[in-house]
Amino acid sequence: MNAVPKQTIEQPLMPKSGTPMKKYSSLFFILLSLVGVIYSFMIGSAALAVFTLLFLCLFLGLPIAISLGLASFAVIYFFTTDPLPDLAGKVFSGLDNFPLMAIPFFVLAGNIFTTGGVAKRLINLANAYIGHLPGGLSIAAIMSCALFAAISGSSPATVAAIGGIMIPAMVKFGYPKSYGVGSIATAGSLGILIPPSVPMIVYCVTVEQSVGRMFLAGIVPGIFLAGLLAFVSFYVAKKNKYPLSPKATFSEKMKALRESIWSLSLPILVIGGIYSGLFTPTESAAVACFFGLIVGFFIHRDLRIKDIPGILVESTKTTAMLFFIIAMAMVFAHILTLERIPHELVSVIKDMNMGPIAFLLIVNLILFIAGQFMEPTAIITILAPILFPVAMALGIDPIHFGIIIIVNMEIGMITPPVGLNLYVASGISKMSLVDVTKATGPWLLATVVALAIVTFVPQLSLWLPNFLYGLQ
């Protein structure tokens, strides 16, 4: 899920203000893109035109969806014989996909649980069991982020919900603010790796893969990354001799477990229901919404009737934004198919005799750069149709390739200039964006290490879906 509470998801590439160097560099890229557009029209290259027009729009500061649409429609109008009215049918047929129906439901479920008091119960649970360790409050926050990610599925929402409670608590206890902000801003990125996850659904729809397998493939890497981030918190706290929390009593642990049991049951319900065949991933999203309302209204009693209009409005705005990106990306993908760009790329890779390892290194570099400037849904819908055929030609497992993309999207969420988690953490902590970015350093390094392991150890992602689906 990408339900982001009152945050603007699409950030312009061109800064509204900044140093003269930033302004000159932006102007340089705009002029470079403009030259590329003119040259592409001179030589009659639709492939070059669509990419240069896309970059020109992006560097001018237009949102991703608008940039995709303008570039695609311009190329179709000037370079093809496709009638523009027929494009409406292509957009509609692209969105008329049953798995895509899961997106609005998972977004709604995420907002319901974000509002329904789930975060504080998960934090109490984590604190009760591991809060007494060196860096215990930070480790508890990371574990809370992992648990909340399995409920909300949104990275920025995870940062907002957990960080809003834990950052002040850590500062009050004696931790440096940068320590708490850095760990939570990074751990919030688990929201798109631990299922349910809208970027996973978008990937599966784009390349026609199993959503159930993709969800299962994200569990082990998500747990592994959470453990790696917790180790960094432990190491930094022990090295700097940060204060220790008192150890919780047995009764306090049992109380925290009882209060959080309903929150913990949602991921089991969703993943268990999909695997057991009780419902599809799309149906599981609707079940999650219903379950969230029951828990919020009648069990936790933190949800009020007056909260519902706000939840619906935020969910509608997020869903509309995501579907607008997907719709425009469908048109963009249509041009890629017409120009046979994926096929040409496959041929080039084969002629270069590039192996899977070299290809994956290049893919990680491309995705890292893209993550600095675009939102995960846009990156997946633009690049997956181009890179996926090459990955298949090299024998890379499609689910493993999807997890590599998702982990790269996590890194994009915590790196400027469009790292959404950084903006949310900055707003919560009142720290500058530069200071928040510096604070994430140790945990960002751990995430890069996790990406390398996920990339070159496929079984970390594949053994669970292969094992469970092999039992059926």
From TrEMBL:
Matches recorded under InterPro entries: DctM (IPR010656), TRAP_DctM (IPR004681)
GO molecular function: transmembrane transporter activity
Membrane topology per record: Multi-pass membrane protein
Localization per Swiss-Prot or TrEMBL: Cell inner membrane
Membrane-spanning parts: 24-43, 50-78, 98-119, 131-151, 157-175, 182-203, 215-237, 261-278, 284-300, 321-341, 353-371, 378-396, 402-423, 443-464
NCBIfam families, alphabetized: dctM
Protein's name according to its UniProt entry: TRAP transporter, DctM subunit
